[in-house]
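**Backbone shape codes:**
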Amino acid sequence: MSMNQKQHFDKLSRFLERKIVGQKMLINRLLIALLADGHLLVEGAPGLAKTRAIQMLGKGIEGDFHRVQFTPDLLPADITGTEVFHPNDGSFHFQKGPLFHNLILADEINRAPAKVQSALLEAMAERQITVAGTTWKLPDPFLVMATQNPIEQEGTYHLPEAQLDRFLMHVVVDYPTAEEERLILLLGRKEAMLDVQRDKEVEEPAVTVDIIRAARREVLEVYMAENVEQYLLQLVLATRNPERYGKNLNGLIAYGASPRATLALDRCARAHAWLVGRDFVSPEDVQAITHDVLRHRILLSFEAEADGVKTNDLINKLLSLVAVP
């Protein structure tokens, strides 16, 4: 493994950990999404550094960041762009929307109606936008981090399960510990003082697009043994036929994970192994990202919901029942 690209990502990780306290898992998942060329759905209460995380990632890589606040009155053209009439020459020119940036924060995606959600998810899948018969390529890298607020459900539009499948991972963030909260306080004071003094910290050198592409190639070359590959496949198949792995799982899952889950587990496990400095995938790498990859791809049955079964609990059961190589 060439350590050159790895050193750049280690430096990026350290930079993000200095700027975002108490969310190491979110930082790790952002880096995995960048390496696996996928998108994140992040769920958590307000004030847990979700916006700050992707904003700081934008400062750490060679790319630009744009935040879109999703509201019920948002239209698809508000994010994709639209044809604008120029009366001087009587022509129409395409004015690019906010999606034409490398890093997009789709803040509170469940507040926008279905047409806007579909426009975003289509852009995520196709990496292009078609307006008035003309196709426009989106920049590379292109990473969307959509957030959901679990507290307020009034005035929101539920994301359909079929559209949730487009996200590489569904990450749930929680409150920091007492010590992390103290460090957040100190960081906030330091940044406030710099703002008052009109002073700025020296920014870290940006990770270039070429470095990201080279790192992605290295991630794809990370070795996965056949028994680990079979383990990965069995985890996905267990969501479709849970009764084969335990009688107590019978009837708990209405729909299992799609083949996209298999592809996502493969890419994310390789990226996880690469980030910790290994050139091979272990079962622990697969287990580390299983919850985030499967959480939004398993649809619980009515009986499971009535019994108070949570998706995380179900995934824990599957991990305990599927034989580890």
Remarks:
- The chain has a mean pLDDT of 86.
